[in-house]
Amino acid sequence: MTLLKRLTSVLVMALAINAVAFTLQAQERTGPLRIEITEGVIEPLPFAVPDFVAENRAANDMARQIAEVVASDLSGTGLFRRIGSDAFISNITSFDSPVQYADWRAINAQALITGSVNVTAGGRVTVKFRLFDVFAGSEMGGGLQLGGTTTSWRRLAHKVADTVYSRITGEGPYFDSRVVFVSETGPKSDRRKRLAIMDYDGANPQFLTDSSSLVLAPRFSPTGDRILYTSYESGFPRIFVMNVGNVSRRALDDQQGAMSFAPRFGPDGNTVVYSLSTGGNTDIYKLNLQSGERTRLTSAPSIETAPSFSPDGRQIVFESDRSGTQQLYTMPANGGEPRRISFGTGRYGTPVWSPRGDMIAFTKQNQGRFHIGVMRTDGSEERLLTASFLDEGPSWSPNGRVIMFMRETSGAGGAPALYSVDVSGRNLRRVNTNTAASDPSWSPLLP
Amino acid sequence: MKHLSKAVLVVAALTLAACTDPSRLGGGYGGAGANGAAGGLNDPSNPISPAYFQQTIGDRVLFAVDQSTLSDGARATLAGQAGWLAENPEYDALIEGHADEQGTREYNLALGARRANAVQEYLTSRGVAPNRLSVVSFGKERPIEVCSNESCYERNRRAVTVISAGGLGS
């Protein structure tokens, strides 16, 4: 597997990124330039990102590419609209020259992002950038300097865009993150599935497994260093844990005659909740990875599956058909009496607790259609965000503002693809993948 | 022989061989080719062949939407399977539970497990030794029909009894 080597080197490089503030008087300024993304945004905020200034010849291409990725990240949120460079009156030729605010006001650029790039012979990249509130005529927050390598330049761009996004929206960042998913090829009746990983925007895809065994539903650890997934490599569904850095893996649990699936990490990174099927009955268990101790959390003749921890580790949300149809329940993390939280019409499955702790995303099936929806953790304020023949398996962005999920088309030629949607229900977008793709799991923000 | 077939599975898993996916057996004649006695065992007119089991006895039973209850027709098929297994003790069986695509992935895995278990329990009640039977669920992962309406769905909601070599020692 040469891909293994390549993947490892990419990861090592990626870890070399660091960030330092170079303006000491950096202050969080919350002037007029602000987007409240909980409220209805009618008009996206117009911004300009001129090509970054290349500080040396080696930085020429990257200076342009980094500006492109920054613009793409911001536009992709649906909250910002890029102003094309053909409209520009001013050009940015030096990072430290004063900004001609009037020239940017004239083209209605509310935010201006300027930057510079330096690339050393050794492959070190230094990016500096500033964010300006054009109509206030001032810089917004301090300038920042980021360091990395030529192979990790996209991460530098994502970090620039994350800073801009956070300063303007007041929300946590999420562009510098990755997604693990299942890559699918072949006909519907004989689908080949492989685990794959990519940047959140579809760049830098890499396979993590070959297609010799059916694999399902990978899930990131809270620090993004490991992945839980279900594989049929023994002939039976069984949970594996993979180290993302070196792609080594081991079976999690080994019980004769049992099938295990639907694993998820707890927030401590050491606890795993999952489903075990024995004698036709599926219940939820908890496993301590270090001690190997296993605790049974539910004991009912019904199906209990798809468990997900609350971010404080105190509760678990899961689905059960104990009432006759699939519904959502919460219970204490050590088991105990479940409390039903879904009461609308239809069936509810695959609940996932938001990283902010405030909401639960789910799949809903009603009258032959599938939806991705969100509700408060007590089941109130249910809102459906999408509708199609088959939408399934939501995964939260690190800041809890965007949901990625799988949408599958119907019929013999039907195939799944990844989509993302704002928690508001706006900005439905297809995520770029080389193959058909399912079961996305969004990583935490990269270190 | 039971132990032997398990050992083979383990080795296959360790070497990541291309054919560890048991669903491949589901479409063919099980492990018949593996014991070297080809020809007759692939002949559906030979009553002791897995091909006969698959095509004449009937290797699968179907289920209603979101159900794992055996219909009268399913019980008749399974009674035939139990009879064949009684007369052919050199074979074991793997029962695969499947679901149609109308449902979420995890739920369908659990539903397939229920269906496979319903078949296992029925075969056991008809005298098949439990240690000759194993179960696996594929959920909605391995449809045999690919259209997205009930004519296909009803054939995908199935439990398939896949015959494999083994069983002499049990």
From TrEMBL, chain A:
InterPro entries: 6-blade_b-propeller_TolB-like (IPR011042), Tol-Pal_TolB (IPR014167), TolB_N (IPR007195), WD40 (IPR011659)
Organism: Pseudohalocynthiibacter aestuariivivens
Residue span, TolB N-terminal domain: 33-140
Protein family according to the UniProt entry: Belongs to the TolB family.
Main location: periplasm
Protein name: Tol-Pal system protein TolB
PANTHER family: PROTEIN TOLB (PTHR36842:SF1), PROTEIN TOLB HOMOLOG (PTHR36842)
Signal peptide residue numbers: 1-21
Localization per record: Periplasm
Keyword Cell membrane: no
Gene: tolB
Subunit organization: The Tol-Pal system is composed of five core proteins: the inner membrane proteins TolA, TolQ and TolR, the periplasmic protein TolB and the outer membrane protein Pal. They form a network linking the inner and outer membranes and the peptidoglycan layer.
Keyword terms, alphabetized: Cell cycle, Cell division, Periplasm, Signal
A Pfam match: TolB_N
HAMAP family: TolB
Record's function text: Part of the Tol-Pal system, which plays a role in outer membrane invagination during cell division and is important for maintaining outer membrane integrity.
